[in-house]
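User: hey, got a sec? need Histidyl-tRNA synthetase folded
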Amino acid sequence: MKYSRLTKEQFEELHKEFINFLATQSITADEWAKLKTEKPEVAEQELDVFSDLVWEGVLTAAKYLEHISPQNIHLFALNEDHMHLIGIKINKPIDVTTKDGFNWLRNNLMDESVEFMQAKKDYTEDKNLDKFKLIQQGSAITKGELYQYMNKLIN
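Assistant: Yep! Here you go:
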């Protein structure tokens, strides 16, 4: 398994897609029920393969990631051949994960306690795995509005 297995909730949400996936494997509903009881390891493998297919599609489509912690914001643009990072560090006891803290940042972007940095990183041979690792570390896929705003502000 390349990524991680989808959660029970994610499988429930993708129920129709999973049925279609099983159909492409020529597995009927009855055969699936039988497989789960008689050959659970094979059923587990099917769940893993489906999970990887879903992750592959999601990661390929992802264009932006955000990771926000109390004093740091990391905004990633997932370009074709590299990632571009905008990092924001707040050197004050302000928690930007709260509404008040984020509003403070928005109103004080030019405060001396706010540091901006930028970096470019080329992908490894597996671009989607690079993205997945950032998600595992707490990043979330976004539409990139915050990245685009900050990019215009500092460039």
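Quick note: The chain has a mean pLDDT of 95. Let me know if you need anything else on Histidyl-tRNA synthetase.
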